[in-house]
What we know:
30% of the residues lie in helices and 25% in strands. The protein is built from 5 helices and 20 strands. It is globular.
Amino acid sequence: MAGALTRLSGRTLRSALTTHSPFRRLLSAESAAAAAASPSPSTVAPPSDDRAKWDYRGQRRIIPLGQWLPKIAVDAYVAPNVVLAGQVTVCDGASVWNGSVLRGDFNKITVGFCSNVQERCVLHAAWSSPTGLPAETFIERYVTIGANSLLRSCTIEPECIIGQHSILMEGSLVETNSILEAGSILPPGRLIPTGELWAGSPARFVRKLTYDEIKEIPQLAVAINDLMQSHFSEFLPYSTVYLEVEKLKKSLGIHI
């Protein structure tokens, strides 16, 4: 009896679906809505972290401004995360280390031969200087700029040391064979004469440099230049890994 009722109800439902078109339209509409609500695997949006990686474009090291394009000598070292913008020139043997920003949008910035600008320094220039001197930031040869220093429209003559965390303001001038101690502030228009040690905030005269201290100033710049060579070699097209590969091939007798 139960089996007969089951067969009868099944035949009744099939006949209702085939004879009454509203039932068919209702079921087809419900199935279409269900298909639209469940997206296919190919249309699923990527996770937010993947989208963030895709949107990341990296940092530009060379930024042209108008007609001005930064110039880097062939044997100069500029770290990958340094920013050079506008009228910037990095001369032969010079090095600009990680995190530094040289912004030559208003005036020129020059890093001379065998000079070095160490980590996280900021160099920029004003439109004009209160002393009447050129408002460019000019660093001559064999100069060492300590980390986290700020230089704005100043001139540093050959063979000088600027200690880390120092600030040199507009129109300041550091003459040859001079040292500015770490953490010093050189006010606008201030002059450090040849062969003197200055320190403080604002910077003041401390004493005359000895002959040995003066002789060590360019030696420090040369030592940093030698260190720069090891960093510079890591940015060859294939880094220095190919040297290890050649050694391995030679030890295994591979002549390819």
